[in-house]
Amino acid sequence: DIQMTQSPSSLSASVGDRVTITCRASQSISSYLNWYQEKPGKAPKLLIYAASSLQSGVPSRFSGSGSGTDFTLTISSLQPEDFATYCCQQSYSTPRTFGQGTKVEIK
Amino acid sequence: EVQLVESGGGLVQPGGSLRLSCAASGFTFSNYEMNWVRQAPGKGLEWVSYISSTDSNIYYADSVKGRFTISRDNAKNSLYLQMNSLRAEDTAVYYCAREDVYSAASFDYWGQGTLVTVSS
Known about the structure:
The structure holds two protein chains of two kinds. Chain A contains no helices and ten strands. In chain A, 0% of the residues lie in helices and 48% in strands. Chain A is mostly beta strands. Chain B is mostly beta strands. Chain B has strands at residues 3-7, 10-12, 18-25, 33-39, 45-51, 58-60, 68-73, 78-83, 92-100, 106-110, 114-118. In chain B, strands 2, 4, 5, 6, 9, 10 and 11 form a seven-stranded mixed β-sheet that branches. In chain B, strands 1-3-8-7 form a four-stranded antiparallel β-sheet, with no helix packed on it. In chain B, strand 7 (68-73) and strand 8 form a beta hairpin. The N and C termini of chain B lie far apart (40 Å).
């Protein structure tokens, strides 16, 4: 199985900050990397697919990059509604493994 | 509007069974692969099972293989997860999720989830 490792596991940031989250795969997954936002009591939301493609309706302050084994999710200017947990997922092979999540908290 | 609505969760004793359902609307259900994903309390997301659009391909996580069965009824726009021999570690919110093969097989729509609690 492909292991997905995110860092950091949590971070504190202020509104307006630039935030970067890293996801590393245990083997090459090409660009089959997706990012989701999780909020308590709500369905997970797809933000980025194929490493760098912005899902329809997602604000442009969210961006993704990387290929192979190393990927990043960047929020260019953190907004109040962005405080949530962010999770990466590989869709290169089955099982479709997820990272452990990065909780973005208010500083 | 795409909607996925799970049902069937609840409290069950260890060794018991439950059948989860996911009602789909707002899209042509028979054209899409579907998945079940779960999240245990305080834990991250865990993929559980996949079924192709025509149910010709089915996969399971090792943690549920031999105990859970995924199925679908395209005529009823519904996805199912039959869960047998339930264990405490199966306690989680279970989500159904649509897979979009044109977007790197990402899960582009999710339901709100249904809570399964396995406890005596």
